[in-house]
Each structure stands twice: as C-alpha cells, then as structure tokens.
Amino acid sequence: MHCLMVSCSALLPSHCVIPVRLWPKFLLPQPKYVLVLCSYAELIADWPVVVLGVCTVLIVVCALVGVLVPDLPDFSDPLLVSASDTGGKCLVSTGDSYSRLVFSSAEGKNLWNTQAIKSMCSCLLCSVQVRSHRDYWSLCQRTNDASCCPSWTLGNYIAVLTNQTSCQKITDRDVSHTLKILRSCAKYYHNGTLGPDCWDMALRRKDRKCANVPRKCTKYNAVYQILHFLVDKDFLSPKSLNYPPPVLKYSMLFSPTEKGESMMNIYLDNFENWNASDGVTTVTGIEFGIKHDLFQDYLLTDTLYPAIAIVIVLLVMCVYTRSVFITLMTIIAIISSLIVSYFLYRLVFNFEFFPFMNLTALIILVGIGADDAFVLCDVWNYTKFDKPHADLSETVRVTLQHAALSMFVTSFTTAAAFYANYVSNITAIRCFGVYAGTAIIINYILMVTWLPAVVVLHERYLPNVFSCPSSPHHQRAACTRVWAGLCQSAAKCLFTVSEASRIFFEKVLPCIVIRLRYLWLLWFLALTVGGAYVVCVNPKMKLPSLELAEFQVFRSTHPFERYDAEYKKLFMFERVHHGEDLHMPITIIWGVIPVDDGDPLNPKNKGKLILDGTFNIASPAAQLWILNFCQKLRNQSFVFQSEGQDFTSCFIETFKQWMENHDCEEASVYPCCSQSMFPYRQDVFELCMKRAIMELDRTTNYHLDSKTPGPRFDINDTIRAIVLEFQSTYLFTLAYEKMYQFYQEVDAWITEELRSAPTGLSNGWFISSLEFYDLQDSLSSGTLVAMALSVAVAFSVMLLTTMNIIISLYAILSIAGTIFVTVGSLVLLGWELNVLESVTISVAVGLSVDFAVHYGVAYRLAPEPDREGKVVFSLSRMGSAIAMAALTTFVAGAMMMPSTVLAYTQLGTFMMLIMCISWAFATFFFQCMCRCLGPQGSCGQIPLPRCLRLHTLSPPVQDKYQLDSSVKAEHYELEPLASGPKDKPQEPPCNGTPPNNSPYYSTLPTCHYCSCADRPHWPPQTDQDPLYTQYVQCPPTPQHCHQGRTGFPVRKHCSPPANHHPSPVPHISSSQGSQVEAPPSPTSHTHLDNGQCPASAPHPTDTCCKQTDLSSTEGTQRRDRTSPDRPDRGSRTKNKCNSEQNSGEPKPEGSPKHNTSTAPPTETLC
C-alpha cells in the first residue's frame, strides 16, 4: 500500500479559525515508518472499540493501583511540628503556643486610649466570637472547673496594675498611670535586665541582673508581658521614649486556647465570614495555628474556579468540534493523563512526596489537551474534504501523518520546560516538574491513540447526533423547529464572527504590522530593555522574605497571611523566637560526615547519621590543635565577644580549666587533677572528660544535651563527635546579601584553618542558621539554570522545525523579550521569587515558544519569495489561530482570580500575562524582524545530507490556492494597504540562490481561455458540512486571472464564452490524483455536469478558472443552503496567465496529459 502525502497548504485556508498547534508540512522520510503508520491507521480504523478498550483498561488499572497501593497525598507541611509531638511542644515558649489576634485602630488612630483598650477586651470581639463557641469550654485553660482563664489583653493587665476587677472598669486615669510605669521601666526591658523571671523572688536572688530593676517594674510581671507580648516593638522603643505621646499602632490578644487543629471549627464558624470591626478597633491578623490545615480544605473548595476555567475551554472545544461526544472523551483523556502520570510518579519513579503544586498541572494540561484535540479534528475534517472517497484507514493515516508530529513538537517543548526544573535543589519544584512533564507526555500518547479512535467512532455512528440539522428534511426528522432555529441563529453568529476575524487577520492586522514595522520594533525593544532593567537592576526580582514555615498560601489580604507577613515581625516575642536581632551562631562539627543520604525527593526522609571513622580528639596533637583553634577563632573580627565566662563555646577550654582547678589530695580524684599536664594522655583524656561533664552539670550552668555544644558519646561512653559553637557579630536577617557575606567569610577562614589540622580533626565542617539562606540561594541559581535549559530546548525545537538559524534566533529574541516583560510585570505586581514563582518563570519559556514557532514555520513554508509576502502569508494563515489560543487561555486564567488559594490566583495572573505578552511579541516584534531582515531563499538554512532531507512543502494543490504559472509571488488584496510602492523593492535572492519555492511555480499547467457562469449546486464531500462554507464571485470580465481564497476549498464552475469553440481539456480527479481526458463538449453556454471547463486557446493570457472533479452527484443541495449572495472572502488576483506549462509549447487538443513529476499529483487550473 503506497501512502501519498497531501500538502497541508492545500488543506488550510487562510482565515479559518484553527488552534495554535498547526501541523507542519512534512513528508515521511523512511518507507518503513510509512508502512508502520499505515498499519497503525488500519488498526484504529478497523478496531476503534478495541483501541479504546485497551486504553480504558490500562487507565483503570493505573488508577486503582495508584490509589490503593501507595498512601494518598498529604498536603501538610512536612517540616511542621505535629500538635501531638510532646517534645516539640516543650521546646515552644508559652506565649507562642496560644491562639492570638492582632488589633489595629479602625480609623488609623492611636490605640492607647481607654475606648480602644476596652474595645479590644469587650464581649463583642472576644466572648461572642471565641468564648461563645460550643467547643470553647473543652479547649480553654482554666484555674478551676468553674471558669476558663481570662484572655491576655492590654486592658486586663492595666486592670491588674491599677487594682481594678475587670478591664471594663478601667478609667483614663488608670490608663495614664500605667503609661507612666511603662515609660520608667522600658529602659530596663530594652537593656535586657528586666526578664521574665524577675517577678519570682527565688529566681530574682539567683539572677543578679534583676537586682537593679525597681519592684514596680516586676509587679505581677505585667510590664515585661506588656512590652514583650502585647504591644508592638515601636511603642516605647529607645528612640521614641523621649517623644511623647507614644503611638500604639498594633496590640495583641492571647486567647486561653492552644493553637492548632482544634481551633478549626471556631475559625470556620465565627471568623471566616465575620466583619472583624466594631468601629473602634479591627482584627487585622489571626494566628490559630491552622494555616496549613485550612489550606488543605481550601485546595478542595477553591477547585471551583479552575473548574469554571475548564468548562469555558470545553465550551469552546464543543463549539469548535461541533461534537459533545468528542469533547467529553477529550476531557476524559486529559484527566486520564493525570491519573496515569500519578501512577508513574508514585510507583515507577518512586516519588513519595506529592506537593500541592502538582494539582495546578490540571489547568496547564487542559489547555494543551484542548489544542491537540483541535489539531486532530481539523486535520481530520480537511483530509475528508480533500479525499472524500478515501476509506477510513486512509483518512486516519493522513490525519496522524500531519497532526502527530505537530502535537509532538509542541508537547515536547512544554514538557521539556517542566523537566528542566529537575535541576533545582528544592524538592517541591523538582517533583512538580517531573509530574507535569510526565502528564504532558502521557496526554500526547492518548491524543494519538485514544482520540483518533474516538473520532472514528464518532464518524461511524454519531455524525449527526450532537450536531445541528443540516437540511429541512433533517430538521423535521431530527429535532423541533425551535432547536432548528437556535442552530441557525448560532450558525449565523459563528459566520459573523468568522467574517469579522477574516477581515481583521487578512486585511487589518498585516497592514498594521507591515506599515508600522519600525515603530513596533522600537516599541518592543524599549519594552524589553525596560523589563530587563526592572528584573535585574531596580526594583528587580526579590528573593522570599518569609521564613520556611510562613510561606504564603492565601491571598495577601487574608488575616493568616497578614499576621505572618506584616505583624509577626512587629512584636518582640516573635522576633526573639524566630531569631530576629540575635547573633548568628558559628557551629563547627567534627566526627560526622556532612553527607545527606536521605531521599532528596522526600523531605520526610532525613537519612541516617554517618560517623567519621578517622575522628580522634583524644590524641595529644588533636587536643593542642583544638585549643589553638578556639583561641584563634575568638580573635577574629566576625566573632562576638561575650561578657563573663563562657562554659559552652569551646569545651576544651572549660575542660582544661576544670582539670587545673582540681587538687590531687584524694586518691580517687587522680589522674583527673592538676598534676596531669596538658595535652593529656589519651586514656587520661577519655576518663577525665566523662567525670568533668557530670560535675559541670551539677556546679555550673553547663548542661550537656542534644542542643548544647561539647563532646558527643555513644552507648559505650566513647567520644564519637565534638561540637564547638560561638556567636558571630552578624545578626540574623532575611536579607540574602548579608547572609551571603557571613557565610563566605566564616567558611573561608575555617576551611583554611582545617588544612593544618591533624588527621583525626581534618574532616570538620561549619554550619549555622542558614536554612532560609540556602532556600534563597537555591531559588536564585536553580531558576536561572532551569530557564537556560528551557531556552536551549526551545531553540533546538525551533531549529529542527524550521532548519533555519535566522528564524530560530529571531524566535529566541522574541521569547527573551516575552520573559523580560512578563517577569518585570510580576516584579511590579509585588511578586517574590518563591517556589511557585520559580516554576512559573521557567515554564514561561515553554508556554511562549509555540506562537513564535508556528509563525516561523509558516514564514519558511510560505510560497512567496519576498519577505513581505511571507509575513502576510504567515499572518493570514496563523493569526486567527494564535489569537484564539491566547484568548482561550487568557479567559481560563481570569476565571481563577477570585480564588482564596494563592497558587490558583498566581497561576491565573501568570497565564493572563504570558498569553498577552507572548502574543504581542510574536505577532508584532517577531513578524516585523522577519519583514525587515528575514531570510530569503536558502539564507540561514542548514544543509542536510540527501538521505536525511525532508521535503518541507509538497507541491500545492492547484485547484485550491496555487498561483498562476507565470507569477513569482502571490499578490494579496491587502498589499496596497500594507505598503506603498516605495516599500516594495525587488529583493534579490540570497547568495545567488533562487527563491525558496520557485520550483513549484515552474510546473503549473496551461491556463486556457474560459469564462465563469452561474454557480452550480455542489455535491457533498463529507458527512458533515464545514462550519464556514462560502462561494467565490466569478470575475466579471475575462481580463484577469482570479483565484479564490476561502474558508474551505472552493470550486468555480465555468462555461465557454459565446464566441469561442470549446476544446477538450485534461482533467485530474482531486480524490484519486490521476489524469483523465475530458470528452469534447458541445458549443453551448450551459453548465457541464462534471464541472469541467471547456476552453480553446486563441488568447492564452486571458481568464483562469479552476478545474475540479464534480463527479459526485449525491446531496446536490448541500452547498446551496448557504447564502447565494455571499461575496468573495479573500480572493487573490493574479497578474497574468501562462499559455503553456513548463516548455511553453501547447499540447495537442484531446491528448492525455500524464504527470511525470515525482511529487504528489496536483489538481489543475483551467
């Protein structure tokens, strides 16, 4: 079975609305692959139910195994301390463990007034919303069984200090008196002498710092609690003490209920939809410890918005394919892609961690799957129209031959952009990239297996079930008149939209692009430079400013997010708890190999501890070196010099001092006494170190535990590791630059010192509180690497598709401009380079490359030899398709904006921005570069060996779009609008090479003299009528050649003029591709039944009209139901006609013409 390839240019009309993933016109290079494709097409055509059944079984098996075998996904924070973790709760301070609210003034005034203080502890804000809940009694802490503890508020502490029974009874005088006490005691708090234990007399005697604090400042510990927990840090700060009156902007309320999952019902019932203001004060921040639990609930409830976006895409797909069945089966294939991808992700790739970001792959996959479905259905319809008598296997083969490669190119580009994220060090980004990329590949496999079988089933059994009635007879038999009227109204609306889009994309848009090309180039270059300045210079993309446990998951206006982002850093207890204003520790460790053997793709798998077998601290050389190391380290400028004796920083100093202070009077003490000289023998060191640790624990503040520096012992009391810790002069900060400077300075010094260490101490390493710095560093470097890989893949795909370096470079420039402007817009919107943002930026390359790829392919495959003709061709062919794809994705993104989950809103924002900007750059910037400096002929073309060459453009089908034989370039009716005579110089070929497609214009058939008559009734070519069918006006005079460009291939019906005698003309069947000699026609002016054009040739430069096969007679009224007065939509005028083909010598009349070309046969112009 010999499979022939039909030119895609013959199948595609110029203004037909088609999806962005247009199929490139490739011929298959290898006969073996042709045979495989033909066999596969026969399988789908003959056994579509079997193909669907096999796919369904595989999908169901993957779904069952994926759900039943591994554990279901857990979207909770893997690093979050569990509420049932008793040890973890013991490490948390008392104030941090309680639920709390942040208050601010409703009118922006000072909160330090009696009315506002009473409002914060009133029944309206506290009792009604918290205490009145049914679960409060079982959750609150109480001093007895009768009542719960009161809330810790500013008003209650004022009442305690002024001996009032409740905060509702305090007066202005009480408020002023408390302010005086706070003013006088604030200096003791800020210099560190007023601590939390100064109110306890027993502890006060031990702590000498509290001895200098006045008793009024320690009464009930109220002053410390107010300044540390209840007021913001700027209230009575050292800088504002001398500037009365102090301004209190924010105040905290602590509820006597522990934060955690138990507060979920109280929040959902009383706070989720509550107006948190009484006109005096407003609750602006909430911390109930349920942020991540609530996020999991919102992930499910807010799927409504992505669902709306999916429904919109499906509606567009249903209208476009005109089939509910195909639409439903397509969405099943998309969902199945996610299911199969989850099976491969969990069981084949063995990924245990499934971050919530993986759910956002659904939105991206719906857009890609819809576009693939558009491609396959379009190619199917055009193939049927071009080959109406072909069997199903031939139709399937041609459809897959065109569509499969195009879908693979676009799917591979996007999937590669996702897979590029695997280079990141962040687990969530790596997992998301693998899952989304795998889902796109599985979707492609289903689109070439599942969907063709669906289309075959639809063609066999459901061609008219879900479509509008096509004739009055069908209307009466299939549905009511109301339904028929709705269908006709919808068809008219669709026709109006199609006509408007054709005018815009064939006439207006090319005119705007070409006439203003220099203006567009300057404008988009300026936008690119501006975007690069915003991204790289000022204000530039900022690294995340929230800590690991505070990643934003809701909108910025959500009270949980406002507490983490705005208010947490304004209260001293939160700053101290999270390390703010504390010195960065310098921790040096020996005895442990710094290797993480845990699963890098599962944050819950922390691996095992690997000990250093060469470690030995007991040798005299190691003792001496470690002592000198501590002394050198203390003298460095980056080490903070603490006051008093430090027992914890360097244990060897403490141990040496302990040995020297012990006399050897008692025999039981020896050898752990002053008689032993430093460095000690190894056996003495090991024995005395254990004694020293036990005694220091009793006599000093040195308590050795898992968090204390010092030696580490195994179960045999052998020293296996040591830890040294010093405080640096650097303070903890979220600023990346300062942490980078700290790490580089300290690590460089320690690395240099370790080079002189003895063998037992040569494997030491340095660590500090650098978790957040590591995240920032991974985001900044990983994002750039992933983006670079995505650009490289996009360039490779573009180069392999067009085989032209110049077009590929122009496409990359367009993509670079898109990225800079998109990221710059996100920066101006306040985005930070967090985990989700990093993924979206790197994926932007894969999502924006398609537009430039298809424009570039259309430019290279355009039959016109000059730049302007190629640009006009690519715009008219691709413009409406790309705009439709961009608009659909834009609307889908807009539908997700009302969501509460930040991931959905950010994804929606990104989709809207990337679609608008990439469409603008590809349409205006890329096309204008091609118009000004685009390649011609073989400029920039990559030569290939003959055995590897692909015929990039099969000879055009002459009865549809081909030019006259003597014309070198098509002349569009919009060209006078696009440029004037001065803008159209004759552009010579590059390097002496003739224009790209000139061979195709040298084999055109002879143009015979004829004239057009009235339109005939055409027989149907397919079971379904094309959506936008139209007629072409015949030329009014036989002075010019007239060629139609319509939504679908259009035929002209010709009859000879009155004063000429007909002569037989050869005829080529469009369906079979063979030439048949037409019998002589009588000299009459009536229509010919077979649609042939009788002609003679006294004037070889007169009118051209189409020669097609109209032998089919069934359904003669099918084409006639459109408007008979419909004008020509896109005709192209030729300059002249050739009198002869190739040699210019006329053929004898009546002699058959045989096609000797090796290219596929084409239809003939008469």
Automatic annotation (TrEMBL):
Keywords: Developmental protein, Glycoprotein, Membrane, Transmembrane, Transmembrane helix
Transmembrane segments: 49-69, 298-317, 323-344, 356-382, 402-420, 432-457, 518-536, 779-799, 805-831, 838-858, 878-895, 907-926
Domain SSD residues, every copy: 323-457
Cellular localization per UniProt: Membrane
Bias-annotated ranges (Low complexity): 1060-1071
Membrane topology: Multi-pass membrane protein
Stretches for region Disordered: 976-995, 1039-1166
Ranges of Basic and acidic residues composition bias in the record: 1116-1131
The protein's role, per its UniProt record: Functions in hedgehog (Hh) signaling. Regulates the release and extracellular accumulation of cholesterol-modified hedgehog proteins and is hence required for effective production of the Hh signal. Synergizes with SCUBE2 to cause an increase in SHH secretion.
The protein's name in its UniProt record: Protein dispatched homolog 1
Species this chain originates from: Neogobius melanostomus (round goby)
